[in-house]
């Protein structure tokens, strides 16, 4: 599931729309892998340390590296809240902040 803003926008969906067909195909394959497998290989999916319980889906297509950050709502439902193309070794702190803010927004609005 993709996070939606209060106005109905889907930032992750909008990011996916910018990808080439080859990039989108590989991304869909990796996301399906995460959804379908009970144990997902660490090269595709891992818990992010020092965050508010965020998880990262990693997609490598040629020399391009894409990251999808999300969180769990319950045991099974993962909500992808932020996506970006990674260009450096370090995880951008701003990307983590955006994902954490969207997580808080998601649960705040869910309570209402």
- Percent of residues in helical segments? 25-40%
DSSP E strands, number: 4
Return Rg in Å: 14 Å
Q: What best-fitting shape do the alpha-carbon axes yield?
A: globular
The overall pLDDT, averaged over residues, is 92
| CATH class category name | Alpha Beta
State the CATH architecture.
Answer: 2-Layer Sandwich
* Low-pLDDT windows of residues: none
CATH fold-type name: YaeB-like fold
| Beta strand % | 25-35%
Distance between the termini: 19 Å
Q: How are the strands of the largest sheet arranged?
A: 1-2-3-4
Tally of separate domains: 1
Order of helices and strands: HHEEEEH
Number of helices in the DSSP assignment: 3
Commentary on this structure:
Helix content is 38%, strand content 27%. With 112 residues, the protein is α+β, with helices and mostly antiparallel strands. The chain has a single domain, classed as 2-Layer Sandwich (YaeB-like fold), CATH 3.30.2310. A 4-stranded antiparallel sheet has the order 1-2-3-4, sandwiched between helices. A hairpin with a 3-residue loop joins β3 and β4. 20% of the residues are buried.
């Amino acid at each position: 599931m993709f996070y939606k803003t209060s106005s109905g926008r889907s930032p992750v969906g909008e990011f996916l729309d910018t990808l080439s067909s080859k990039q989108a195909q590989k991304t869909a394959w990796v996301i399906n892998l995460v959804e379908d497998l009970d144990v997902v290989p660490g090269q595709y999916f891992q818990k992010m340390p020092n965050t508010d319980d965020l998880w990262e889906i990693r997609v490598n297509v040629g020399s391009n590296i894409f990251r999808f950050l999300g969180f769990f709502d319950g045991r099974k439902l993962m909500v992808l809240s932020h996506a970006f193309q990674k260009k450096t070794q370090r995880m951008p702190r701003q990307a983590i902040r955006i994902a954490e803010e969207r997580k808080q927004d998601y649960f705040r609005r869910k309570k209402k």
